[in-house]
Design brief:
mainly alpha, transmembrane helix, antibiotic resistance
């Protein structure tokens, strides 16, 4: 793409695709499908468990099979997108995701459902980095880039909450299988839109080969770590299997880093993560999602089990959170990113989210949604909206086109692995704290009706306080590591000019 006129606001591409905003709709639709699928099944899980006769110990695999495959294979998916073409991998990911969803919806046994969820994760790992890299290479004008990433960041941040709402509606008024079937028409629309509206930019393909040893080491290490966190909940942190998984994962990832310095065509070029701003964005995303995903888990159970909400009502209770994320991302961050440094949005965003979580540490069995839960959700949503958009935009700014797929995959890996870690870590904290509370306060069988619910809520508040501490750490990381200037004033803007010229 060549550079046309240049004004005080920066370069404007002379050959910008006139249909690029419709292309953004297609990209956003695919990304929304991937993100919400991580949570849409949560509300449907009790119904699916009863229908397929799953044990309490095995039901977690409906969630974990997806997150393991997704988080573990994202880097490989990103590099495949760079090597064979983003549009091609985008379409393949959509078709595969739709077929896996149909297979899961028709599942006749728990094993069939687990396998379908794993397949969804595999194709999501191809689809997600392709979507973000298409966005990165389509919108190179800093003015348009802010708006595009505002929309993308809003979907990335609110997709999980939308999943709860949609999951509640489908489960209550149809059945749990439609939480999987719903992906099929979405994917069909996105595939048709991709063929009509999306175009690859130069910078992929060539003679480079896929780094197979790097794929085995990196993906194997991530899978081992995520699997270890998922098994820590039922087995305990000191279980030999859990410790072995963590050890294997750390060793594999260490060898992966060693190999990437020597591989002729590395899966993850280390110059991408050596950049201070990108590393800060990756770490901020990881920490932010740890806190947010843990909250989704606790609030779902709190609303349905403690307050007695129906699936639909529980899903609708997340709507203000979703609205706040969208407002923070599209109306605040997108408007300010070209005027202020990214960390001036990310740090206040994480502090607002931390404040919202601290409010939730005061909830009790009898808390009012309107006066106690709602203000906390609004603060959390606004903070996440302020943070997600500059993280996505800064992490992918100035990346050479040939590396856009793997950079996009690294952002998504941080998000997915953070969600897996947050769910496992905070759920273990909540369970342990609840058990200790009940043991300390239970005097006899007559007390169970009051002590057990109070203990459960106590466990939630302890875990949420940990999530608040993680959000505070994310604010510190963003403030110290993300030193990028506004795009039109500093290096990122120049990098975007070079990317456009390339």
């Amino acid at each position: 793409m060549s550079i046309g006129r240049t004004g005080e606001r920066g370069p404007v591409p002379a050959e910008a695709d006139p249909r690029r905003w419709w292309g953004l709709v297609v990209i956003a639709l695919a990304q929304l499908m991937v993100v919400l699928d991580a949570t849409i099944v949560n509300i449907a899980l009790p119904s699916a468990q009863a229908a397929l006769h799953m044990s309490d110990g095995n039901r977690q695999w409906v969630i974990t099979a997806y997150t393991l495959a997704f988080g573990g294979l994202l880097l490989l998916g990103g590099r495949i997108a760079d090597l064979v073409g983003r549009k091609r991998t985008f379409v393949i990911g959509l078709i595969g995701f739709a077929l896996a969803s149909a297979l899961g919806g028709a599942a006749a046994s728990s094993g069939m459902l687990f396998g379908a969820r794993a397949l969804q994760g595999v194709f999501a790992a191809v689809l997600a980095p392709s979507a973000l890299s298409l966005l990165t290479t389509t919108f190179t004008d800093p003015r348009e880039r802010g708006k595009a990433f505002g929309i993308y960041g809003a979907l990335a941040g609110s997709g999980s909450a939308i999943g709860f709402i949609l999951g509640g509606l489908l489960t209550e008024y149809l059945n749990w299988r439609w939480c999987l079937y719903v992906n099929v028409p979405i994917a069909i629309i996105a595939v048709l839109g991709a063929f009509a509206l999306l175009h690859d930019r130069p910078g992929h393909g060539g003679t480079a080969r896929l780094d197979v040893p790097g794929a085995v080491l990196g993906c194997g290490g991530l899978v081992a770590v995520v699997y270890g966190f998922s098994e820590a909940e039922p087995r305990g942190w000191t279980d030999p299997l859990v410790l072995a998984l963590f050890a294997v994962g750390i060793v594999l990832l260490a060898v992966f880093v060693w190999w990437q310095n020597r591989a002729p065509d590395p899966l993850l070029p280390l110059h991408i993560v050596r950049d201070r701003n990108r590393a800060g964005c990756f770490l901020t995303m990881l920490l932010a999602v740890i806190g947010m995903f843990g909250l989704f888990l606790f609030m779902t159970y709190y609303l349905q089990v403690i307050l007695g909400y129906s699936p639909v009502r529980a899903g609708l209770a997340f709507l203000p959170l979703t609205a706040a994320i969208i407002i923070g991302s599209t109306q605040i961050s997108a408007r300010l990113l070209n005027r202020v440094a990214p960390r001036l949005l990310m740090v206040p965003g994480m502090l607002l989210a931390c404040g919202g979580l601290l409010l939730l540490t005061r909830m009790t069995v009898h808390s009012s949604y309107t006066s106690e839960i709602l203000p906390a959700l609004l603060l959390l949503g606004l903070g996440m909206g302020l943070t997600f958009m500059p993280v996505f935009a800064t992490a992918t700014a100035g990346v050479a086109p040939r590396d856009s797929g793997v950079t996009s995959a690294t952002v998504n890996t941080a998000q997915q692995v953070g969600g897996s870690i947050g769910t496992a870590l905070l759920n273990t904290v909540a369970t342990t704290s609840a058990a200790a509370y009940v043991t300390a306060h239970l005097r006899g069988p007559a007390d169970r009706a009051t002590v057990v619910p109070a203990g459960v809520v106590h466990g939630y508040t302890v875990a949420i306080s940990w999530a608040a501490a993680v959000m505070l750490l994310a604010a510190v990381v963003a403030g110290l590591m993300v030193t990028a200037k506004p795009p039109r004033h500093g290096v990122p803007g120049k990098a975007q000019v070079r990317e456009s010229v390339g």
